[in-house]
Automatic annotation (TrEMBL):
Gene3D superfamilies reported for this sequence: 3.40.50.2300, LytTr DNA-binding domain (2.40.50.1020)
InterPro entries in the cross-refs: CheY-like_superfamily, LytR-like, LytTR_DNA-bd_dom, Sig_transdc_resp-reg_receiver
UniProt name for this protein: Two component transcriptional regulator, LytTR family
HTH LytTR-type domain ranges (all copies): 142-244
Presence of keyword Phosphoprotein: yes
Keywords of this entry: Phosphoprotein
Pfam annotation, one family: LytTR
Span of domain Response regulatory: 2-113
Annotated source species: Algoriphagus locisalis
Source organism phylogeny: Bacteria, Pseudomonadati, Bacteroidota, Cytophagia, Cytophagales
Record carries keyword Signal: no
Record GO terms (molecular function): DNA binding; phosphorelay response regulator activity
Modified residues (4-aspartylphosphate): D53
Length: 244
């Protein structure tokens, strides 16, 4: 697996890279010293996992995750116990307390390898061939106050524009991210997500019912009960995509 180590402390980076280089399953493809550096490295190198320090100057590890369109697997590294609980709250793959013990690192890598192996070959193929688009197998990081989530896009049923933010519908949650719906629409795989109107993007896998609406439009019912209007302008394209 391809890994990037992100930490503002040079010694901490070097120590972790030395430990990772002793593991046959890990290939350290890069390192970064802050959030901006990390964003560039992640976009260029497309890692499977990032080892992410939480507290860094100017911007934190959580702020980095908020700025990424597609979030790789994350293993937090921290010297502060107070952040460990927060790492669990964001449903991170794992967290490592500094100084990092080789055995704990191996456990984290084994856990990650099991998660990666759990993907089917078709899912892996889809991800490889759609790197420029966000597929159902990709995950995003969503933060709402002190609560944070890593959300797989297959679990997101609806995106709703709300001013300069987007409301993300998954499970019983509707947190907001600071992005535009137009920008998100350009990144999403059109085979899985459909721009129903200026305000909504729906996950086609969550469509449960379709019915005619005023002026040639449609109303789509999603699993869970959300009812979304498909504009007349988009209705014909939606019927074509759904083979109606």
């Amino acid at each position: 697996m391809r890994a990037i180590v992100i930490d503002d402390e040079r010694l901490a980076r070097k120590e972790l890279i030395t430990l990772l280089n002793q593991l046959e399953s890990v290939d350290v493809v890069g390192e970064a010293v802050n959030v901006d550096d990390a964003k560039d490295k992640i976009e260029q190198l497309n890692p499977d996992v990032i080892f992410l320090d939480i507290q860094m100057p100017e911007k934190t590890g959580f702020e980095l995750l908020e700025e990424l369109d597609n979030v790789p697997h994350v293993i937090f590294t921290t010297a502060y116990d107070e952040y460990a609980l927060k790492a669990f709250q964001v449903n991170a793959l794992d967290y490592l307390l500094k100084p990092i013990e080789p055995k704990r690192l191996e456990e984290a890598i084994t856990k990650l390898q099991g998660k990666i192996d759990g993907y089917t070959k078709s899912e892996e193929s889809l991800s490889v061939h759609s790197q420029k688009k966000l597929t159902l197998e990709d995950q995003v990081f969503v933060k709402d106050g002190d609560r944070c989530w890593f959300v797989r896009l297959s679990n997101v049923r609806l995106f709703e524009s709300d001013g300069n933010y987007i409301k993300v519908y998954f499970d019983n949650f509707k947190p907001m991210i600071h992005k535009s719906l137009n920008a998100l629409d350009e990144r999403l795989d059109e085979k899985s997500f459909f721009r129903a109107s200026r305000k909504h993007i729906i996950n086609l896998g969550w469509v449960e019912g379709i019915e005619p609406w005023f002026n040639g439009g449609l109303v789509v019912t999603l699993r869970g009960g959300d009812r979304i209007e498909v504009s007349r302008r988009q209705a014909a394209r939606f019927k074509e995509m759904m083979s109606l």
